Amino acid sequence: MSRVIKPFFREIVGLGLLGLFFYLFFLVDLQEKSIELPTQLLTVNTMFLSILLEAIPFIILGVFVSALIQTFVSEEFVQRVLPKNAYVALLPAALLGAILPICECAIVPIVRRLIKKGMPLHVGVVFLVGAPILNPVVFASTYYAFGSQSVITYSRMGFAFVLSILIGLIVYLIFKQSEQLKWNKDDLMNSRENNDNERVGKWKATLFHASDEFFEMGKFLILGALIASLFQTFLDRTLLTEIGSNEFLAPAVMMGFGYILSLCSEADAFVAASFGQTFTTGSLLAFLVYGPMLDLKNTIMLFAFFKSRFVLVFMIIVTVVVYISILLFQGML
User: Fold this and answer.
1) Model confidence, pTM
2) Contact partners, residue 312, CB within 8 Å, separation at least 6
3) Is residue 2 over pLDDT 50?
């Protein structure tokens, strides 16, 4: 009985979150004309919709790429193209992230699918943290946002490349090749039924996989966007200016700010540039590197699809590695 109730409950929660999105999108503007709504509620609504509308196109891109991988990429192909040596395999993953225009909004379903197809966990982690920053769209937006401050653009790319490999290496040393994905009965059945369903039509199967994954990921995206919008609305930002010049506190604060804001990596450079007169170069880099690697909405997705212990250790690794690297960078300036 519980096997039936649990999926049903998940679907009810998902439909409720989708209903919340449509309510805020279509009805709040109509109601505010006749009912005086609190300013903070309207701010939460604006932040929530901006995060969601910014992320949805990339989620759609991510689930379609994920569906294409599910339909057209075999486990044997993934195992054949990856270097057998666990350490050598780190470099191709970082280079792959540099050529694919995928932001952190779309990366979780893609990495999840690749790991299911046989990609080692630590290689998937390199792609997970590196691709949202290293891709050409992010490079162009960062370069445009900071203009003459090209050191920030190139430092961001350099940090992302080196740290993604370092984080993947640490994950390998801790977890080796252990299984950290949450598998359900449907996942196991899909992996076996793939060959039997090839005659149905690969493009039709791709659409089915993409639609299923979109609604599955969408629930967690909406929940993460709602929590992030609440933080953005009620966070006292006057405190930021008081500590913006502190070389030790400023990077930590900007990392926390990047985590809470949950901005898309294609747009976060413009927000970071607005803090240019208040915060140090190192703290701006902390914001630009840490946020795409780990933010609030992605954390919820990670907990949904990976084991809790792995997600907690992964969060600690990313936080410590980025913070120490930024302090070393500031010491060399």
Assistant:
1) 0.74
2) none
3) no
